[in-house]
Amino acid sequence: MIVDLEIACAEPVTLLITDDDAGDRRQIVRALQQTELSYEYCEVSSIEEALAACEQRSFDCAIIDYQLPGNDGLDGVAALHRRFPYMFIVMATGHGNATIATEAMKRGASDYIAKKNISGKSLGRILQNARQKELTRRKLAQQREELERFADVLAHDLKSPIASIRGFATIISQAVQSGTTDPVKIAGYCDRVVKLSERMVALVDTLHEYTKVDAHVDFEPVDLNRVMENARSNLEQVIAKRGAVVSQDDLPVVFGHASLMEQLLQNLIGNGIKYCEAETPTVHVSASAVAEIGWRVAVCDNGIGIDAKFHQQIFEPFKRLHDRGKYEGSGLGLATCRKIIERLDGRIWCESNEAGGTTFYVSLPAI
Fold first, then answer.
1. pTM of this prediction?
2. 16, 112, 159, 231: which sits with the fewest CB atoms below 10 Å from its CB?
């Protein structure tokens, strides 16, 4: 599943308070109330209760007292870290020193604080660090998932044409060596090799475009009318080959990046043409102002339509709704679109049905 980091940031920070002293727990809760964060918390008085609570739900952060009944805090830190290695754990003590802090870090603690220093400001800093670590972990998990998918598609989509190229090359070599060459057949084999090579190059280019979206760019005002001109120019051959009609309303100036927006519209328009079985594919691009959001751009086509149950899945990398070969493509087009929109703090979704026709909506910030 792809994680929406913007939504994740808006979720309440969750805190597990582990201390056998009710007064100390109240001190932490008062400090929590003084922060400007949206939060949820749970109080327990022992490591056993803390482990049980973590089995029931996940926490961004756990604050553990150094002295706990039947099990000191250092052992508790180690136990929690073993079971929940991604949780941000803070050791709290009223009798602490640098030695205890160092040992706590060795056992798996992420931070250390003296109880006398617990305040709204210090606790806010701790929880912000905990949330940032959680978001980083989610992003790394997302990237790891993408890399695994890349490996799968490379193993299949590159290995298959390579095997075919090798097969045709062997046939050509044997024919030449035996002196029984048929010019027509050899030309046909060579043509197949060229097409397979072009397919491999197209896949590598698509993978490169997808990963390039993460590169640093500076955002600025972008005229979508100019972006449409470039996108239409890039698709000129595709439009001519299918006899497609691509139209537009007057489009606004938005806050973004020209090349990313060009890639976005090119992918959406190209999809509208590719996934269309009508004699004349049509794609229309329009935009409307939306209060408190900015602009909503709509790309409407007369294509084959998308079943509602797939409206979220189509934005996942390498997600195909059709058998390989029916429609050309790597399955990265819409995933790239979502990646671009997430960078612009926008949103992308679609409305469609199996009867035909799909409209992709993109929300973008105004200037």
1. 0.54
2. 159
